[in-house]
Amino acid sequence: EEQVLVIREKLAELYESEQQWSKAAQMLSGIDLDSCMRMIDDTFRLSKCVQIARLYLEDDDAYNAEAFINKASFLVSSSQHEVLNLQYKVCYARILDLKRKFLEAALRYYDISQIEKRQIEDEEIDEEALEQALSAAVTCTILAAAGPQRSRVLATLYKDERCSKLKIYPILQKVYLERILRKPEIDAFAEELKGHQKALLPDNFTVLDRAMIEHNLLSASKLYKNISFHELGTLLGIPPPKAEKIASRMIYEDRMKGSIDQVEAIIHFEDDTEELEQWDQQIVGVCQALNDILDSMAKKGF
Amino acid sequence: MDIEQKQAEVIDHFVKQASVLKGPALVPLIVEATSNPSLFAFSEILSVPNVLELEGTENSVYVGLLRLFAHGTWSDYKSNADRLPQLSADQVLKLKQLTVLTQAETDKVLPYSQLMQELDVTNVRELEDFLINECMYAGIVRGKLDQLQRCFEVQFAAGRDLRPGQLGNMIQTLSDWLSTSDNMLLSIQEKIKWADGMSESDKKHRKDVEDRIEEVKKSLS
Amino acid sequence: ENSLLRQVSSLLRRLPVIESGKFQDDFL
Questions:
Q1: Is residue A112 classed exposed, middle or buried when 0-12, 13-18 and 19+ CB atoms within 10 A define those classes?
Q2: What is the DSSP string of C1-28?
Q3: What is the DSSP letter of B136?
Q4: What's the pTM value of the predicted model, to 2 decimals?
Q5: Residue A273: band (very low, low, confident or very high) from pLDDT cuts 50, 70, 90
Q6: B187 has a chain C CB within 8 A of its CB
Q7: For residue C16, pLDDT beyond 90
Q8: How far is the alpha carbon of C1 from chain A, nearest alpha carbon, in Å?
Q9: What was the pLDDT predicted at A37?
Q10: How remote is the C-alpha of B187 from its chain's centroid?
Q11: How far apart are CA A192 and CA A157, in angstroms?
């Protein structure tokens, strides 16, 4: 088995040098990591699992990469090897990204971007890599399903000063402020995306399309008390029946408050009980505005 | 408060510039001020002596322009277009934004028909896009669009420069608000007193009933 | 103080805080 291991590793190196990533991964995956004939330590097992996952990810093969990352997850908690642990985290984030679990991927990318050390054992962590992780976190958050969970992550990212220096900041700002995104902005954002983030879905929308439509629908819910299907379709740039379908799904999944009147072909964005709650909120707003004026007066010596 | 904070620096800048420029040199400054996307208040600039000195000169139309932007609306401009300079696209946009603020002074619920007439807009989509992009997203107005009732419910609108005679109305409104609040506090105090009284009388009644029950129990045993 | 006056003007315009028909029904 020792000789088989050496041969497989050498062959994998050759495949890697020729950028045949999946073949290299397949070569390494033939190594018996659970053999009872040899003493194999957990660090070695972990390093092989992570290496194979990384190779599969070079070919965007999330399915096979996930199998090895799942094996690695049993070993990583007891691992003291910081470089391997970091590589594991990066692989896991990328797998979630490829599988379109965008919110989870965003949280993991954000976690990686917050690494404070600039040197881990022999590996140097450069600022650009951390910036890329942060940018990936922002991208994934924007692509995630619009709703309260995404809003929380958006708030965290928006308030992180480092994000203001990213190229992607203007769109983050608009998404955080729940503003409607127009076609030129969406097209500019699309240029920064990877293939799987623009993939076509069964309903004939791309991943990006769906994220933008849902975001714009949520933005519209902040601006309108109610809107006709027809006008909503015009606003979102899609046929009215599709606009209705997406709205109904978001309401059903509790990601947007509202109700649909199919007879009048109108979506009402607020619940019936909210009028009095709004009254309370408006009163609070008036009191705060009054306080602000009194503070301004005090500052000016009145 | 936000909009005032944002435009405070801009106002300062233009006031300082206006203080050092004289005569025709003020004209491009006035045009710049009335085109600036962050500025919605002009009385500070209007109060600068150098600007007021333009009255009676060949550039007095620009003082008129500043007054229009301070207090007037798009309809006012159209009625007096022959006596005012031609407006650029940015100035037209700003004047329409200020028109919405003036509309919101008198009514909290603005019908689409009224807004479309005031803003020279021919369809609902165009009106709503204007209200969303140029008013709500600019931070000068907050509210909700109601397509069913075809109106815009205003929750907040930034303040415009005060017109002569408006101060009296404001003071009256403040007085009314104060006296209504005082009356309401008195009502609340009375209600609290009434509730306390009812609670006491309820406790007493409960105790009387319990005492009576005890009496009856004793007499039965 | 024009700035203060504008703020007060804006504040006063917020009263009453809601005027919609739906609110009147709920309030009653």
A1: buried
A2: -HHHHHHHHHHHTT-SS---HHHHHHH-
A3: I
A4: 0.83
A5: low
A6: no
A7: no
A8: 9
A9: 63
A10: 30
A11: 18
Q: Do A275 and C11 touch (CB under 8 A)?
A: no
Q: Which two tokens stand for residue B197?
A: 């009284």
End-to-end CA distance of chain A: 87
Q: How far apart are CA B29 and CA B17, in angstroms?
A: 8
How many CB atoms within 10 Å of residue A111? 13
Q: Both tokens of residue A263? A: 């007879």
Residue A292 forms contact with B (CB below 8 Å): yes
Is the complex ipTM more than 0.85?
no
- Do C11 and A286 count as a contact with CB atoms less than 8 A apart? yes
The count of other CB atoms within 10 Å of the CB of residue B206 is 10
Which residues touch C21 (CB under 8 Å, ≥6 apart)?
A: B149
Nearest CA in chain B to A219: B132
Please check whether residue A142 is in contact with residue A171, taking contact to mean a CB–CB distance below 8 angstroms: yes
C22 vs B: CB within 8 A: no
CA angle A263, A269, A274 (to 5 degrees): 115
- A190 has a chain B CB within 8 A of its CB: no
Look at A293 and C14 and tell me if their CB atoms are within 8 Å: no
Q: Which of A180, A223, A293 sits opposite B144 (nearest CB)?
A: A223
